UniProtKB/TrEMBL annotation, chain A:
<dbReference type="Pfam" id="PF14054">
    <property type="entry name" value="DUF4249"/>
</dbReference>
<protein>
    <submittedName>
        <fullName>Uncharacterized protein DUF4249</fullName>
    </submittedName>
</protein>
<dbReference type="InterPro" id="IPR025345">
    <property type="entry name" value="DUF4249"/>
</dbReference>
From TrEMBL, chain B:
<keyword id="KW-0798">TonB box</keyword>
<dbReference type="InterPro" id="IPR012910">
    <property type="entry name" value="Plug_dom"/>
</dbReference>
<feature type="domain" description="TonB-dependent receptor plug">
    <location>
        <begin position="141"/>
        <end position="219"/>
    </location>
</feature>
<comment type="similarity">
    <text>Belongs to the TonB-dependent receptor family.</text>
</comment>
<dbReference type="GO" id="GO:0015344">
    <property type="term" value="F:siderophore uptake transmembrane transporter activity"/>
</dbReference>
<dbReference type="InterPro" id="IPR039426">
    <property type="entry name" value="TonB-dep_rcpt-like"/>
</dbReference>
<feature type="domain" description="TonB-dependent receptor-like beta-barrel">
    <location>
        <begin position="279"/>
        <end position="748"/>
    </location>
</feature>
<dbReference type="Pfam" id="PF00593">
    <property type="entry name" value="TonB_dep_Rec_b-barrel"/>
</dbReference>
<keyword id="KW-0813">Transport</keyword>
Length: 278, 788
């Protein structure tokens, strides 16, 4: 529904005598925090044994070097149902990896990170995801019915609440485009989720031969609340946007509660595919 | 003891009425028969007098004798009439505008808008529609709401945001009335223009505090806009052609001059330009004002008025939305006798929007309807004591939203959010009482009662917490639903009653100056849900109920008022302190659209606002205008006891988006000759409080901003200068057609004032940057107005 907000802003910009420019702004500086990107995503059809957790620290908003890895932490994940433990080894570049992870849908896992003598913990349950039934291209969906878009089709399971994270990326783009979804208005239906670009986007509209990566994750309700706000805020809070808020993930600091970590411990099932425009 | 003294005073003033007689009647404009609101009627050489009410009625009671009755009104010639008061009598006046033949008078007394120092009424601004029409405006669209913002204590949230803010209050805390009908959205085109067509408007009165007891339902202000009745002397037309819209108003006598009509319409044609420039988007609005009245006899008049306005937006073929207000009002003025005036109103009003999203194949519909009956009476006991009393009832019907799939292939299911119904009633009594020659008081009481009606089910929550604090994660979460209670149609979900005292006093220091003091309490039972910094047309109203409590505000004000140099200049100084309980705040990450359980998104908060307002006016001469300065704070604190936890921003006070520490407005108009008048506005104000990033971190391959405490930053200082020139070609006295050109430049020095600053990553370089959106740069305009 935040689509409207985007549209309103778009309209305002396109219709009135408005202009946009990049300016210098002086900002407040928050204390540095640990950032935990613990995304244990199990791609359907694989073993899911290989998993990576990334640790870094936050920096000033306009900092030139935004790559500030944390290499000296201890990272461990425990399956609380089976008490199975997985130690993630530091690769000395901010990545911590394991090759023995055992993903089980519906099982609950604990994360423990020890950094600077402080212990961070988080708990999450591995969420299933439904299959992508087909991928199609068309022009009549999307904002503009003269522009190509690609649609991912899937059947939303009717009996439960489902939350989705989509990641789309055209080859050559710098970042994935993130979109969040829930089945409040579409429960139990066949859903088509489209991805379209316009001329103002990086690399412009889709044309024949363009290749895109498409990923669909099953996520928890709590993570959905988190990622929805994150996505909304990462798109910039414009004219009609809601007031930005401090985003708190699920990683707590047991030693010093005020020094909580950014980031999230998520466990998802994911289906990945790709599509080349004809 | 004190109370006894007052009571004594009260009775002596009533008793002294014995040998008195009353003169009453109505005051109208000789040129078109429009009744005049706020004209003063005085007995020369006494302090006995009255101000005409909304329907031009006055009543004066004085001891028998011979008097000179003096009528005066802004922009009109004074009238003096000898009367012998030996019986009750009716005297109607038709007064003349300063006409062109009387050029020399214009120069000395044009548009005198001095302060009424005697009336205890304070925190009120009346704007003359002529002053409004002369002020330079963006694209030449005369705009009442924008003009109000040149007054002290009135701001808005920047270009491109709807509504206005009074004394640090939110836009939904303003009661906006058009001929008594509630208008829920005051803007066209997302806030760029107002819904009021200046050609159809007679009076505008803004109560920023000390709201009279007859008004209720909002905590911040009352904007009372009255439509013209229509010319009952002759057929007349007026209109204009501008860059954005064109207007036409027709008016004339009806029913053998026992009545009149007015039809005014306005439509935009931005669409033409969009089509020409091959832009696939469309934007437009139109509105229609209607009014007619019929005089049965001296004592009975019937009025019918209506408004209908609509906005349409289209984004290519994928998205379409229309929204607007509609209202109708039937009124019956009845004069029981010389001293008792009454008005009965039956009012309907509605605001709705409809969004069509073709891409997802559904329509989204939302509306608020209300039916309002009001009976207001005024009794003029004697020259020292007047009494207003009455009752009102409003029945609300809220449709927060419905989804209708537009095709069978739509992946969206049909859905209807729970409709909500409520009844808001009020009774009031208010006295205007001259206690001594120097001291006048106005004291009243309103009792309001709100009943949220059944006919729907409501969730029950664990620990009765729709929102609960998760102390582990340190965030507010939606509470656990443990069941549902179904309320039958006859049942009441919740009800609230509030006593709202309203008191003010004026003490005359001397002939030219006075001090005034006021206190008022007001309750507000319906709330606009909006977690964005700007009000959008898609925001939804919600009534108080089981989980949402009514807002209650208390305001204290103190003022000093002075006229200088024979009322050529006036000064108004006011300070105020206002607190509001039960203001709605939103949990982090709240989702308001299409939400059936709003109580799970909101927290209870309190607000406070205080400030100093200075208004200095030059009222006469070739050059007229004013300087308005406001120094103010507006803050909010959210530490909801029911939800627990620390609250928003750790339960500290934080600035509301309506906080402006400094706000300076200067507006002036210079009549250079018969042909040319020049006007100018200057506005300078502190930037709007906003929330900026205070750091970043890497997540999902993106640079994610962390944000500082709510509203702890400010947009850059806002300032702007506008100018306009009005050219009236040679007047031919015998020709009825009168035309004028208005040329204007908005934002003369092309200041790029930030409407918003957003932060994000450049999609090509990945570097974080701050992007400023400025809406209006320098905008020239030309408008042609005519009347005949």
């Amino acid at each position: 529904m935040k689509l409207y907000i985007k549209l309103l802003t778009l309209l305002t910009i396109s219709i009135f005598f408005s202009c946009e420019d990049v300016i210098d702004v002086e900002l407040q500086k928050a204390p540095e925090r640990l950032v935990i990107e613990a995304s244990l995503d199990w791609e359907k059809g694989t073993t899911g044994n290989n998993q990576t957790i990334k640790l870094s620290t936050s920096s000033a908003y306009f900092a030139e070097d935004q790559n500030t890895p944390v290499t000296n932490a201890a990272v461990k994940v425990t399956n609380t149902n089976s008490s199975e433990e997985f130690i993630f080894a530091s690769q000395n570049n901010g990545s911590y990896t394991t090759t023995t992870f055992n993903p089980i849908v519906g099982n609950t896992y604990d994360l423990e990170v020890i950094y600077n003598s402080e212990t961070y913990i988080a708990t999450e349950t591995l969420q299933p995801v439904t299959d992508i039934t087909r991928v199609e291209q068309s022009t009549e969906k999307g904002f503009d019915d003269e522009i190509l878009e690609v649609s991912v089709y899937f059947n939303d399971p009717e009996d439960e609440k489902n939350f989705y994270l989509f990641r789309f990326k055209e080859d050559g783009d710098l970042f994935f485009e993130l979109e969040d979804g829930d089945d409040e208005f579409i429960n139990g239906n066949e859903v088509d989720w489209w991805y379209e670009k316009d001329e103002e986007d990086n690399q412009g509209e889709f044309t024949s031969g363009d290749r895109v990566e498409l990923e669909m994750y099953g996520i928890s309700e709590a993570y959905h609340n988190y990622i929805r706000t994150l996505i909304e805020q990462s798109e910039g809070v414009g004219l009609f946007g809601s007031t930005p808020v401090a985003l708190k993930g699920n990683c707590l600091n047991q030693t010093n509660a005020d020094n909580y970590a950014y980031g999230y411990f998520r466990l998802t099932q994911v289906v990945k595919t790709n599509y080349t425009f004809e | 003891m004190k109370k006894l003294g007052l009571l004594f005073l009260f009775f002596t003033s009533l008793l002294s009425a014995q040998e008195n007689f009353t003169v009453s009647g109505s005051i109208t404009d000789a040129s078109n028969g429009e009744t005049l609101f706020g004209a003063s009627v005085f007995l020369e050489g006494t302090t006995i007098g009255a101000i005409t009410n909304e329907y031009g009625f006055y009543s004066i009671t004085a001891p028998s004798g011979d008097y000179n009755l003096i009528i005066s009104y802004v922009g009109f010639l004074d009238v003096k009439k000898e009367i012998t008061l030996n019986q009750n009598q009716k005297v109607n006046f038709e007064i003349q505008e300063y006409a062109t033949q009387l050029e020399e008078v214009i120069l000395t007394a044009d548009e005198k808008e001095h302060v009424n120092i005697r009336k205890p009424e304070m925190s009120v601004n009346k704007l003359n529609i002529k002053t409004v029409k002369r002020m330079p405006v963006v694209l030449g669209e005369v705009d009442i709401i924008k003009s109000l913002q040149m007054l002290p204590g009135v701001t808005n949230n920047g270009e491109g945001s709807g509504g206005f803010n009074v004394r640090g209050g939110a836009a939904d805390q303003n009661l906006v009335l058009l001929d008594e009908a509630i208008i829920y959205n005051t803007s066209h085109m997302l806030g760029f223009f107002s819904v009021f067509n200046a050609d159809a408007i007679k009076d505008i009165k803004l109560h920023k505090g000390g709201i009279p007891a007859k008004f209720g339902g909002r905590t911040s202000s009352v904007l009372d806009v009255r439509q013209k009745d229509g010319n009952n002397k002759r057929f007349a037309a007026s209109g204009g052609i501008g860059l954005i819209s064109s207007r036409l108003a027709l008016e004339g006598p009806m029913f053998n001059k026992k009545g009149s009509f007015l039809v005014a319409g306005r439509t935009s044609y931005a669409n033409l330009f969009l089509a020409i420039t091959n832009n696939k988007n469309r934007v437009g609005f139109y509105d229609l004002n209607l009014k007619t009245h019929y005089n049965f006899n001296e004592n009975n008049k019937l009025f019918l008025s209506g408004y209908f306005g609509r906005d349409t937006f289209k984004l290519g073929t994928s998205f379409e939305t229309t929204y607007g207000n509609a209202s109708a009002n039937l009124r019956w003025n009845h004069i029981f006798n010389e001293r008792l005036f009454s008005n009965l109103s039956l009012i309907y009003s509605r605001y709705d929007y409809d969004i069509g999203i073709k891409i997802a194949e559904f329509n989204w519909i939302s509306a608020i309807d209300n039916y309002n009956a009001k009976y207001d009476l005024k009794y003029y006991f004697n020259d020292k004591f007047k009494l207003d009393f009455g009752a009102s009832a409003i029945y609300y019907d809220f449709n927060p939203g419905a989804i209708e799939p537009t095709s069978t292939e739509s992946s969206v299911n049909a859905m209807q959010l729970d409709k909500k119904k409520a009844l808001e009633t009020g009774v009031y009594i208010n006295a205007e009482h001259k206690l001594t020659d120097k001291l006048t008081a106005q004291y009243g009481l309103r009792y309001s009662y709100f009943n949220r009606l059944g006919g729907q089910a409501l969730n029950n929550y664990a620990n009765n917490q729709p929102v609960a604090y998760n102390s582990v994660l340190g965030i507010y979460e939606r509470g656990e639903v443990i069941g549902e209670t179904n309320y039958d149609k006859g049942e009441s979900i919740a009800n609230y009653g509030n006593l709202e005292p309203r008191v003010s006093m004026a003490y005359e220091l001397n002939d030219n100056s006075s001090v005034k003091l006021g206190y008022s309490r007001a309750a507000q039972y319906i709330h606009l849900l909006s977690n964005t910094s700007s009000v959008t047309p898609l925001d939804v109203w919600t009534p108080s109920g089981k989980y949402v409590k009514p807002q209650l505000s208390d305001q204290f004000a103190l003022g000093y008022f002075r006229n200088f140099k024979d009322e050529a200049y006036s000064l108004e100084l006011e300070t105020y302190y206002k607190t509001t309980d039960n203001r709605i705040d939103y949990i982090d990450g709240s989702d308001l659209i299409g939400n059936n359980t709003i109580e799970q998104e909101i927290l209870n908060s309190e607000a406070r606002a205080y400030g100093l307002e200075i208004l200095f006016r030059k009222n006469t001469g070739k050059f007229t205008g004013w300087v308005a300065y406001t120094l103010a704070k507006s803050e909010q604190r959210t530490d909801d006891a029911n939800a627990g936890g620390l609250g928003i921003s750790n339960g500290e006070w934080y600035k509301t988006p309506y906080d402006r520490l400094h706000d300076l407005s200067i507006t002036g108009s210079y009549k250079a000759s018969d042909k040319w008048t020049f006007s100018s506005n200057f506005a300078l104000q502190s930037g709007r409080p906003v929330t900026y990033p205070n750091g970043q971190y890497q997540y999902e391959g993106l640079s994610i901003a962390s944000y500082s405490n709510r509203n702890s930053d400010r947009l850059p200082l806002y300032h702007r200068l506008d100018i306009s020139a009005t050219y009236t070609p040679n007047k031919k006295p015998n020709r009825r057609w009168k035309g004028e050109w208005v040329f204007g430049i908005y934002n003369v020095y092309n200041k790029k004032n930030a409407a918003s600053i957003s932060f994000g990553q450049n999609s090509e370089t990945g570097v974080n940057e701050a992007t400023r959106t400025a809406i209006f740069g320098m905008v020239p305009s030309a408008t042609y107005n005519f009347k005949f």
